[in-house]
Amino acid sequence: MNESPGVVDLLGVLAYAELSAYAHMTEDAASLAPSLADRAALSELAVAEYGHFRLLRDRLAELGADPEEAMSPFVEALDAWHAQTTPADWLQALVKAYVGEGIAFDFYREAAKRLDAPIAKLVDEVLADEGRSEFAVERVRAGLAADPVAGGRLALWARRLVGEALSQGQRVAAARPELARMLAEAEADDQAEISRMFARLTEEHGKRMAALGI
């Protein structure tokens, strides 16, 4: 295997993130969607996530890595995030799909900046929006128009999503030093750069909140 451990870590965490997103979006579509059209739309997004998982799994195998072994270090942190951020209703599910998954994917994009072109291209492909933003923003704005009071509740929910995501992201970075180094622009100042990276993630989160109207 020629790729660095950091590359395998990144593809491994991305693969498990996509597999988890598929499973939870499918569950939310079945249990929380208020209409068949909404269920179908969210299910289509979930299928796209599974397609991304397959691309990552296959690339890991091509690199000579065992996909299950590459994903396993990240199962605990990602499962904990999902367990702590189980949506109670449809609007919360949409905010999680847009805001929660969005900040996690921003984290992976930061790491992709340091990758060789073929791997960076794959990461860009699997992090493609696939209509998630448009779908979530449209539905959440419609929900807020029907129930303006829900805005405060959803704002609190979004802050919780981000707090949990940043906490788990820091755990992952601390536990996987090769991956953490990929996130740092200067090895001599890794922790400071990681702090700046999390500040950029927070800024992008603010943009998503504004798009939702909360």
Give a quick precis of the structure:
The chain is mainly α and 214 residues long. It contains 10 helices and no strands.
Head-to-tail CA distance between termini: 46 Å
- Rg estimate, integer Å: 17 Å
Total helical segments: 10
Mean pLDDT: 86
Classify the helix fraction into a percent range.
over 70%
Structural category: mainly alpha
Largest sheet: number of strands, sense, barrel closure: none
Strand content: under 5%
SSE pattern, N- to C-terminal: HHHHHHHHHH
* Unreliable residue stretches: none
Task: Name the assembly state.
Answer: single chain
Rough shape? globular
Please report the total strand number as a whole number. 0
Structure description:
This protein has ten helices and no strands. It has helices at residues 5-32, 36-62, 67-71, 75-84, 90-112, 117-126, 132-146, 150-175, 177-182, 190-212. The chain is globular.
Provide keyphrases for this structure.
mainly alpha; 10 helices; 81% helix
List the topology elements:
Layout: H1 5-32, H2 36-62, H3 67-71, H4 75-84, H5 90-112, H6 117-126, H7 132-146, H8 150-175, H9 177-182, H10 190-212
Helix pairs in contact: 1-2, 1-4, 1-5, 2-6, 4-8, 5-7, 5-8, 5-10, 8-10
